[in-house]
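Same chain as my last thread, 223 residues:
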Amino acid sequence: MSRRRRSRRQRHQDLLWVYGIAAFFGLSLAVALLHWLLAHWWVLLVLAVLGAGGGGLWLFQRVQRAHWEQAQARALRYGLAQLDALHHREFEFAIRDLMRRDGCPDAVRVGGANDNGADVKATDPYGRRWVIQCKHRRAGLAGSAVGTPDLQVLNGTARPVHKADVVVLVTNGRFSKKAPPFASAQRIHLVDRALLGTWAAGSRPLWELLRKVPPPRRRSSLS
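reply #2:
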């Protein structure tokens, strides 16, 4: 037992020696480098200039990329045939991109199994929080109508859960006869195929195409 303890103690001491020697050489190298830099101060100046130039170039490229992305977003257009051909998840991303085009940079697609009735969420330039549910129909108008059950789910979560100011259900298809009265009573905005076509193919933001949108929460550069 005592031999084992001595062996472990010896290994521990050997490791301490190795660490000590490594620390000594590391410190010596750092001191030597510092002395060299103090004697060649212009090297630091050159490195600082190169760093500033590289940082400026990176910032310029980032700003240029942001401008390009904004220009691309402003030019975004969809035809109804394009929207019909999308998968339902792609349709949700298309709605998100249209909201970004309209001036909602925080627009995000959140659709999924646990979306609580929200597929897209965004904040417009006037501070209003938008919660959008998307119902895609591959067959367009020939597909099944979106009815009150979908509206009831959205109505139950949009304001209590997602804190929405504006609640929207958008489809490339059609709504049932009972859907508009229910939506009007619950202050839910319906975007049917015709309105979607106008919005997606044009340049006007959705809040200019809807009726009775809540007033702005704050002033915007657009106002």
